[in-house]
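Morning!

This is the sequence you dropped in the shared folder:
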Amino acid sequence: MRGMSANHFRPLLLAAVLGGLWACPAEKAPQTDTHRAAMAVPDSFANPIIKYDTADPTHQVGELIYTADPAVMVLDDTVYLYSTHDEQSAEGQDYRMYDYRLWTSKDLVSWQNKGAVFRYSDFDWARGDEKTGNAYAHHVIQRKDASGKARYYFYAAVEGGQTGGQFGFAIGVAVSDNPAGPFTDPRGMPMILLEDTAAYKDHSWRNIDPAVFVDDDGRAYLYWGNKQLWWVELEDDLVHLKGEQYSLDAEGKMQNRDASQVQIHAVETLPNFEEGPYVSKHNGLYYLVYAAGFPESLAYATSSSATGPWQYRGILMDPLPNTTTIHPALFEFKGHTYLAYHNADLPGGGNYRRSVALDRVVFNADGSIKPIVRTSK
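The structure's back. Tokens below.
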């Protein structure tokens, strides 16, 4: 790793001043690049971190933008934070969501607005109208092929694509060679349909909030659900379910899908599971963070495996003012762990006008997590 130049040091100093105290070692020790990187991240934040639809959405004042459902991908020294986009009026009483936004940062203090990188209508099978595009929560991951080429996989819940044209939410996937897109649909149809979970629940929005986790052995898992948590293993290509059978049309799109050999697992051991599962691994332990109850609080469970069984560990955050929902993303950056979530703290905020925030995660010696301390400036 390269040492710091004078030009590199200035933004780190600014990050420390704006973001809180630097982490100091218990004993005076040589300042390695690893130490410096750890000191460059803050303990408190100017929440909501996404405020304005400007080049610097945290500090450059402009038109307010409402965002929700954060998903985080960390690549090298950069955090890629993808959000949904609430476009409802202050008087509106329903979700109005058409696109997904990307925000990036190298220090969690200064963010760059990359704009809309995906729309619900990029799935040909999705349905929307002037009222809403139903662009619900999502997740983005990177995987490299055998040659080292990186591809990016965008999983999203939108309405449409159901057998017989019935109303209901489905989960689709789109792929790109760039984290900012453009993303294209390699399947031509959803990954998860109403029929796949009909044995468990019957409400039409049960298949929402996808999250994908790739384990150390390369096996990948998709988690999702409302009122019920499900998970399924994915094929190595990350676009098909393990055991899914199909044929291809002349354009290479799927047809004659047969999911009878796919094993979809239902998790029944999580108290008050509502939605928003997010799986990650920290210090050798697997963590499943999720929205619990309604109005939603933030709960979590741990396991020695990505497939469970899951041990419930408690509540991390109580319900927040002015919004009945919460949506977590737990991630590591420069030696520390952070939680991205949404609140309703911007002027005019509410259930359908939410805002992405960020706070520090602190672990106890037994792997449990201390209750999240919300910060703002």
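Headline: DSSP finds two helices and 20 strands in the chain.

More detail when I'm at my desk.
O.
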